[in-house]
């Protein structure tokens, strides 16, 4: 009896130690994932065609233009130069970040691209908060630019895999539809789904405004298929593509108020401008 009574406390201690080890491992995986998202920046130099000196000069002008524009807007698409040295480019910042953060992200992305010394006419830089791309061909509105730049996930598994996956699937479907068809042409959406009383899935989807609609939906669906293959069971994951971004987590990571505030400010300006135009027009007609 004494032997058995000694075993029970020992088993409890071992179980507690195993629990602590699991928690430590999970926390380490989470910290490592967050650190990668915060500091990782990728650049893809994908074309085999060499850039001319004129093209490189136009690219430098494009980068300067993007640095300025990113203080004013989260998405911008333009071209600089004349054929055959025209540079087409765009950038997109995450819909919930402030303009100063957007500008800082684009500044880092363009500097990183410049330091990579890419001698070709096609480049793409991606991070968790922004993307920057250029080419000698216009990709505006193209729906086949689903090239995957990067994906990442928390290297641990949820305990309630089946229930989590079911809620995740529904949440991703909802956020995809919101971004593609109901986002007022911003291409940015967030959606939440309850797994249990204490666990919520937070999801974010964003497409470049030029592919809003069916093409946005296809891009996000393709991204989700990648996460299903490589990050199944992970509590958090992200996939970055040329034209869209998809991310989910069971820890909140976005600022809905910032996105909502930006939208409200934009709508206020539009309403105020329309009202001012009406007042001036009425005054001119009367006098």
UniProtKB/TrEMBL annotation:
Domain called Gnk2-homologous: residue spans: 37-139, 146-253
Gene3D superfamilies xrefs: Gnk2 domain, C-X8-C-X2-C motif
What CDD domains does the annotation carry? Gnk2-like (cd23509)
Q: Which UniProt keywords apply?
A: Repeat, Signal
Signal sequence bounds: 1-26
The domain of life is Eukaryota
The UniProt entry, under Pfam families, shows: Stress-antifung (PF01657)
Q: Which InterPro entries match?
A: GNK2, GNK2_sf
Q: What is this protein called?
A: Gnk2-homologous domain-containing protein
Q: Which organism is it from?
A: Saponaria officinalis
